[in-house]
Amino acid sequence: MLYMKGEQHETVVLFQILRHWRNFVSKYKRCNQNLLYKQLSRQRTKNRMHLRDGEGQTKMQH
Asked: Does the predicted TM-score (pTM) go above 0.90?
């Protein structure tokens, strides 16, 4: 019985967290979209740099 109660409590907590997260996302989505886009663009440029390094290494090996 205690184990079942614990599981139910965990699910309730998860649902509350999801509810808060959805409210947070809906509130701050417009503000954070630009920041997230900038971060993603930075990550893409970093990935491109890494890819270029990898290509250079493979060319050097050949």
From this structure: no
